[in-house]
């Protein structure tokens, strides 16, 4: 005769026996603390910029009136300090508002989990610069690849990279190709990357320039600064090809940049020592256009006075 199956009796834990329902509910809540700003460190190599612009001043005013409504997120470090995962703008607003603490949710995460969380939370911003996307995508993809290596040993490194890229693409909405284009921007010198952020160089030409050695990128930037024009996609491709053949020199860069572009407005290019020696020695290149315009306005007023004197 078969034995009757006995139901296993579940006994309450010690915590359940010696704590009230209210205490147990409180334990389930997020750990929200007021943490001194002096104990909070920014996330290492945080790719998102924090500017003291008009939006920041509006946030500062809101913080003064309402405090921090949405807590920042931090994790405890081994040295006892805290690392900021999300809320860098809120922390800066508290500093400007003169508040000593930041309302924070304290979480437990390892380095790679923290990196993925940091990127995800900051992608909720309304405006994200190309440079911010570039470094954020790179950091998150590297963290995802490391996580994949630890959790799945049956795939090759290339398979893991492709799987991570596909997941990231689904999460952020950019195609895998577009993600890797943005990541290429991290190979640009800061001056060229800033021009991409400002909208002066498009993404595709910038990607081509990123394959050129950095010392030659500096020559390209100097030429852009002097000629006040930027390369098209086809010109950037030619520069990249010439660089691989060791044929891209400052002279060849200038020759390419001075080519007439489609829909390009007529422009005047000053060349040679005759013009260069007329500028003050300490005048930066970026101010030369203003100097020329002021000189021409002054000369036009002189011609007008001269014409009036001749009519008298």
Radius of gyration: 29 Å
Assign the CATH class of the domain at 19-108: Alpha Beta
How much of the polypeptide forms β-strand, as a percent range? 5-15%
Task: Output the number of helix runs.
Answer: 15
Unreliable residue runs: 1-5
Order of helices and strands: HHEEHEEHEHHHHHHHHHHH
CATH topology of the domain at 19-108: Conserved hypothetical protein from pyrococcus furiosus pfu- 392566-001, ParB domain
Strand order of the largest sheet: 1-5-3-4-2
The CATH superfamily of the domain at 19-108 is Conserved hypothetical protein from pyrococcus furiosus pfu- 392566-001, ParB domain
- Helix/sheet category: alpha/beta
User: Average pLDDT, to the nearest integer?
Assistant: 81
Total beta strand runs: 5
The percent range for helix content is 40-55%
Could you characterize the architecture of this molecule?
A five-stranded mixed β-sheet has the order 1-5-3-4-2. The chain is α/β, with parallel strands linked by helices and 312 residues long. The chain has a domain at 19-108: Conserved hypothetical protein from pyrococcus furiosus pfu- 392566-001, ParB domain. Residues 1-5 have low confidence and may be disordered. The protein is flat. The chain has 15 helices and five strands. It has helices at 14-17, 21-28, 54-66, 88-97, 111-122, 130-151, 157-172, 176-184, 190-197, 203-209, 214-227, 233-244, 250-257, 273-276, 288-311; strands at 32-36, 40-41, 72-76, 82-86, 101-107. Helix content is 55%, strand content 8%. The N and C termini lie far apart (134 Å). α10 packs parallel to α12 (233-244).
């Amino acid at each position: 005769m078969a034995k009757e199956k006995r139901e296993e009796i579940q006994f309450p834990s010690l915590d359940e026996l010696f704590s009230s329902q209210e205490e147990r509910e409180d334990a389930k809540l997020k750990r929200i603390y007021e943490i001194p700003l002096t104990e909070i460190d920014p996330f290492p190599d945080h790719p998102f910029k924090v500017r003291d612009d008009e939006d920041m001043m509006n946030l500062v005013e809101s913080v003064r009136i309402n405090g921090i409504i949405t807590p920042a997120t931090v994790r405890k470090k081994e040295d006892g300090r805290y690392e900021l995962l999300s809320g860098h703008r809120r922390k800066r607003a508290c500093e400007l508002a003169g508040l000593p603490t930041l309302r924070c949710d304290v979480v437990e995460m390892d380095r790679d989990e923290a990196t993925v969380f940091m990127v995800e939370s900051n992608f909720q911003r309304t405006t994200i610069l190309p440079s911010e996307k570039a470094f954020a995508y790179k950091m998150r993809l590297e963290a995802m690849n490391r996580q994949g290596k630890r959790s799945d040993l049956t795939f090759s490194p290339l398979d893991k990279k492709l799987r991570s890229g596909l997941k990231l693409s689904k999460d952020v909405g950019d195609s895998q190709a577009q993600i890797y284009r943005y990541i290429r921007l991290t190979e640009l010198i800061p001056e060229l990357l800033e021009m991409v952020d400002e909208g002066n160089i498009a993404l595709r030409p910038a990607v081509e320039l990123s394959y050129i050695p950095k010392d030659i990128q500096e020559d390209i930037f100097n030429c852009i600064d002097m000629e006040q024009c930027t390369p098209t996609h086809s010109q950037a491709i030619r520069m990249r090809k010439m660089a691989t053949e060791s044929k891209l020199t400052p002279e060849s860069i200038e020759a390419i940049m001075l080519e007439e572009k489609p829909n390009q407005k007529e422009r005047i290019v000053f060349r040679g020592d005759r013009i260069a020696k007329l500028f003050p020695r300490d005048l930066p290149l970026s101010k030369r256009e203003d100097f020329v315009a002021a000189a021409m306005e002054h000369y036009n007023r002189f011609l007008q006075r001269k014409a009036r004197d001749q009519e008298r």
